[in-house]
Amino acid sequence: MTFKEEESITLITKKEVADQLNLDYAFVASWITLTVHSSLEAVGLTAAFSKALSENGISCNVVAAYYHDHIFVDKKDTDKALAILNAFSK
């Protein structure tokens, strides 16, 4: 994905691609896809799982696509985030 902002361009890409292209990066994340189908008009889903993660000290970046939400968490937090999200879904 590409985000063009006033200050710069942000890319979401595989680390291997960034390394191959000699791109600088500051954040290596794991990509977690929520398998529940979520409407772009749904209210509260992002807030709910973001709150569950933040209460456990995990920051997340969210991309809402048409069928699913995609969460990017720091690579070191992957297992903990998955456990929290799996428990949250029950």
Estimated share of beta-strand residues: 15-25%
Q: So what's the overall shape?
A: globular
**Rounded average pLDDT:** 89
Largest sheet: 3 strands, antiparallel
Helical percent range?
A: 25-40%
Compute the number of strand runs: 5
What is the H-and-E element order?
A: EEHEHEEH
Low-confidence stretches: none
Span between N and C termini? 31 Å
Instruction: Count the DSSP helices.
Output: 3
Side by side, the strands of the main sheet go: 3-5-4
Radius of gyration: 14 Å
Structural class: alpha+beta
Description:
The chain has 90 residues and is of the alpha+beta class. 30% of the residues lie in helices and 24% in strands. The chain has three helices and five strands. The protein has a three-stranded antiparallel sheet with strand order 3-5-4, covered by helices on one side. The protein has a two-stranded antiparallel ribbon with strand order 1-2. The longest helix has 11 residues. It is globular and about 40 Å long.
Write a concise keyword list for the protein shown above:
5 strands, alpha+beta, 30% helix, three-stranded antiparallel sheet, 90 residues, 3 helices, 24% strand, two-stranded antiparallel sheet
